[in-house]
Amino acid sequence: MVLVMQAKMWRLFIIFSLFSLVTCEEVCHKNSKDGEQCEGSNQIHQSAVKMIKIAEDVRMPEIGYGTWKVVGDEPIYKVLEAALDSGYRLIDTAVVYSNHRSIAKALKTLLPERKLSRKDIFITTKIPTVTSVRNPEEEPNLRDCQNGVKKILSELEVEYIDLLLIHSPPSSEEERKEAWQCLEHFYETGEAKAIGVSNYQVPHLEEISQFSKHKPHVNQILYNPLVATSQSALVEYCNKHKIHITAYTSLGNSTPNRLLNSAPIYAIGQKYKKSTAHILLRWATQQGFSVIPKSLSPDHIKQNIKLEFKLKKSDMNKISNLF
Q1: For the chain, which end, N or C, has fewer CB atoms within 10 Å of the first or last residue's CB respectively?
Q2: Could you give the C-alpha distances from 323 to 66, 82, 317, in angstroms and in order?
Q3: CA 29 to mean position of chain CA atoms
Q4: CA–CA separation, 274 vs 189, rounded Å?
């Protein structure tokens, strides 16, 4: 009898072990817009955020923390502390945000405290045109792109950037070509794991396709219900050519805020017992986009990442056609 019981317990142990192995593996499913999307990836330690494949061997969190207008060591430390503790692993920054060094300083303390390392964090940054910076001799910019990117790596105190973007299209075709070829160089050296653009329209993307060795992996654009119609052709183009879209200003930034104060969006939120911010962010991610909301409130930072629900198609369509 004892031997029979032991045999049964051993079989149960084997079954449980196999189940654990299966459930701990990375699970990816195809997305018609962006290629593969992955859940449970071991690339993002201690975070349940969905991962989106943007390039070969590169997966980006679906939701990240945007650092626009967050400047200074103490403010950056506080928001990144809240973000990391809430499960964020993507940090979105840019040269013109003037916070590279503050981010590096904060992560130097915050990561080891949470038993995290550089590979657990996904950093997106953007190199600007020369006209976008106050001091072109000191600040990284596209006039001297190669030295500019090297300076960005130094400011962030990293050996590579997960996603390097051109912040906005340079004014001439030749400048745009040189800028993209510069990013391709860093992609090929491995100092940029993925490359892309921001604020590029269809003609700019078509132009790149004429000479590039590597297509943009990402186009980071203004996208929310206020501009859904005007950006529809760009979205269609990016989807067709497998260029992933990161949406910025998902929650709006007008005064008063037409999105966060929208009665119809609030009403939709009540049906799902979610905030208006949740509905706006989920509306974007449900289209296959990644989002990078910013907040200075630790509570809002914590809440914004909780997007484990699905909007009905009728509600998606209603939001898309509100404005």
Answers
A1: N
A2: 25, 33, 12
A3: 19
A4: 44
Contact 142, 128 (CB under 8 A): yes
Neighbours of 139 (CB within 10 A): 19
Report the distance separating Cα 323 and Cα 311, nearest Å: 19
Q: Which amino acid is at 75?
A: P
Residue 12 CA to residue 254 CA, distance in Å, equals 59
Angstrom distance (rounded) from CA 164 to CA 182: 11
Q: How far is CA 50 from CA 41, 43, 219, in A?
A: 8, 11, 19
d(CA 138, CA 121): 27
* Neighbour-count burial of 253, counting CB atoms closer than 10 A to its CB (0-12 exposed, 13-18 middle, 19+ buried): middle
Strands (E) across 152-301 are located at 163-166, 195-198, 218-222, 244-248, 290-291
Write down the pTM of the prediction: 0.86
Place of tokens 């910025």: 248
How far is it, in rounded angstroms, from Cα 97 to Cα 93?
7
Catalytic residue numbers read 97
Two tokens, residue 110 = 């915050």
CA dihedral sign, ordered 196, 200, 206, 212:
negative
- The predicted pLDDT at position 33 comes to 39
Query: Using one digit for the tens of pLDDT, what is the confidence trace for 99-138?
Result: 999 999 999 999 999 999 999 999 999 999 999 999 999 9
